[in-house]
User: What shape does this take?
Amino acid sequence: MGQLAEKFLLSRFARASCLLLLALAVYSAVVGSWLPALGATTGAALVWTTTAVRPSHEHTGWISLNRALVIALAIELCASLWLGPLSLTHWLFVVPLAAFAVLPLVPASLVTLACVAAVMVAGLGAGLGPDRHQLVSTLFLATALSCVLVFLREYKARQLAPLRRTDELTQAASREYLSADLHKEIQRSEREGTDMAIIMIGLDTHLSDTDPDADIRAILPRIGRFLHSQLRDFDSYYRVADLQFLIILPGNTTAEAAGKAGQIRKGLVALLASHHLDLTVSAGVAGLNIGDDADSLQQSAANALRRAQRQGGNRVQSYSAWSDSRPARGDNPSAMGAGSHD
Assistant: This one.
């Protein structure tokens, strides 16, 4: 409950900050201060592209845009050291915090050092006025405080990592552990000479709706409990996206996993129907092959799921390297070597 409250408050704060920055951008444009207007607009876009505003912004495209906006904001603020107005230079104090919050540690450190160096170079002249030395010392202090906060954040993350093993809504294992766990299962399968397969299950609604409504979110705990009831003690399942789950099945061939996926798909459709949700479910199955690693096996299952949904959804699709290399248009599973199960 505490985590849900934290997300709710953070979302409201982020939206309010975005609106205030947009208002500041409009005011700056009206009075003819174009660089502050650009900086405020960039700041608003930076806030909007975070996951605090929308959980769907956790996808790769949004993350890349978010990181690019941090760098753009740092460049704009550094430009104000020479172009003015001087009031905009005080925004440089937020760059270390923003950089360390959005970028990986090394790029964030480089952006922060670049800003500090720019302030020091600009402070050598008289363009920043008599307060230039105070600006340099204050930026050093802000950077030091940012480093302390980063240290506390990393320390807290390491301390709480064991407690975040499962997703709070579905009780599925968190996606952060998926690659490591899958790597271990692959090593065990290769060492013992046994089969292994994975299933990626997705609700077909996410093809047209990237922000699931409250009814779907409300049933996620039931979906998690249903998946748990369908698996063996040594199977494991993970929530890899808002409406997608990945299941690891040690000792199962691709055909056995496809049969299991069909059972689960039908059970989930019945569960959704019992809650008056007219939704379908698709699944992609991939078996372990020679040369596969955790990433390639996940990608194979994702490709199979995507192919199943391209064919209209509400089906199970087994991965085939040959069929995946063929055009998506006019897919015919039986002719292309990728099994489809209704």
The chain is about 60% helix and 10% strand. The CA atoms of residues 65 and 187 lie 36 Å apart. The first strand starts at residue 173 and ends at 174. Confidence is low (pLDDT under 50) at residues 1-9, 207-211, 322-341.
